[in-house]
Design goal:
Blueprint (H helix, E strand, L loop, with lengths): L7 H51 L8 E3 L4 E9 L2 E8 L8 E8 L1
Antiparallel strand pairs: 1-2, 2-3, 3-4
């Protein structure tokens, strides 16, 4: 006599496949949330660095000098190339696990 329905083996296999799909989905969502948070931190740090660089570029040529910013998490170094040209390097340490953000520019008189 032929019975309709699922056998125990079919039910266990389908449950195992469903468990694998759910666990992989949870893993992907967790990674996406971590990436989203890191990207937000990076964007905020980049905005802070760009703001500091724009402030430096708006100063008079003679008053551009090395200093620190962002509560000591960033520093600015200035090197004179010629009497009319300076190289400005801005470094922001935004996350201990990732490399710092570095911005460079040249400033002329």
């Amino acid at each position: 006599m032929r019975r309709r329905g699922f056998t125990l083996v079919e039910a266990v296999v389908s449950f195992a496949l469903l468990a694998i799909l759910i666990s992989s989905s949870v893993y992907l969502v967790k990674n996406a949330m971590g990436t989203r948070q890191l990207t937000g931190e990076l964007c905020a740090a980049m905005d802070l660095a760009q703001t500091a660089m724009e402030e430096l570029r708006s100063r008079p040529f003679e008053s551009v000098g090395g200093s620190s910013f962002a509560g000591g998490n960033g520093n600015i170094s200035v090197r004179s190339i010629t009497s009319d040209l300076k190289e400005i390097k801005l470094t922001l340490y935004w996350n201990a696990k990732h490399p710092p953000i570095e911005l460079y520019t040249m400033r002329s008189r």
